[in-house]
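TA notes, week 10

Several of you asked for a full example with nothing omitted. So below is the full record: structure tokens for the whole chain, then the designed sequence directly under it. When grading your own attempts, check the secondary structure regions first.
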């Protein structure tokens, strides 16, 4: 009888220890999953899903173990079928806590000629707006909620892991 009680007590203690360690590591596991290069596969803007075009799918964001990131977005040129930078490329640092990603210390690293304006460059650095991070079926989803002129907008970017290099013009 005493052996059964000790065994039961051991199982209870083991179960309690298992639960607490999973909870303590959830942020770490989330960040481990985020690390790597991700290429854009779709954008959902105000509920409208659109698959990434050939050029948009060359948009890559990379998150590294040292909490730095690099983000280069691309689109089709208005004048040809060539791919070009979509706005500015950025790099910097990030934090990820409980599914909320905040990019900080942002530097502009790719500047298209037509956007080489100090005011626009400063604006491109962003306001460190939080993005919600989720993972499903080996895909990364970044949800951005922002306000312009009193109206709130939601854009969802979906990425898949890649080993491709960054685009360059």
């Amino acid at each position: 009888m005493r052996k059964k009680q000790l065994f039961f007590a051991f199982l209870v203690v083991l179960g309690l220890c298992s639960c607490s360690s999973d909870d303590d590591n959830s942020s770490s596991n989330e960040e481990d999953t985020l690390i790597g290069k991700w290429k854009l596969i779709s954008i959902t803007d105000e509920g409208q899903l659109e698959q990434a075009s050939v050029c948009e799918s060359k948009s890559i964001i990379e998150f590294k173990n040292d909490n730095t990131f690099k983000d280069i977005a691309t689109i089709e040129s208005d004048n040809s079928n060539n791919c070009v930078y979509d706005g500015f490329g950025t790099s910097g640092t990030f934090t990820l806590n409980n599914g909320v990603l905040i990019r900080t210390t942002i530097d502009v690293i790719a500047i298209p000629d037509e956007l080489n304006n100090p005011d626009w460059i400063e604006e491109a650095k962003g306001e460190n707006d939080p993005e919600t991070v989720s993972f499903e079926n080996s895909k990364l989803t970044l949800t951005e909620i922002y306000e312009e002129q009193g109206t709130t907008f939601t854009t969802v970017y979906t990425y898949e892991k890649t080993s491709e290099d960054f685009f360059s013009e």
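Residues 1-25 have pLDDT under 50 and may be disordered. Use that as a sanity check on your answer.
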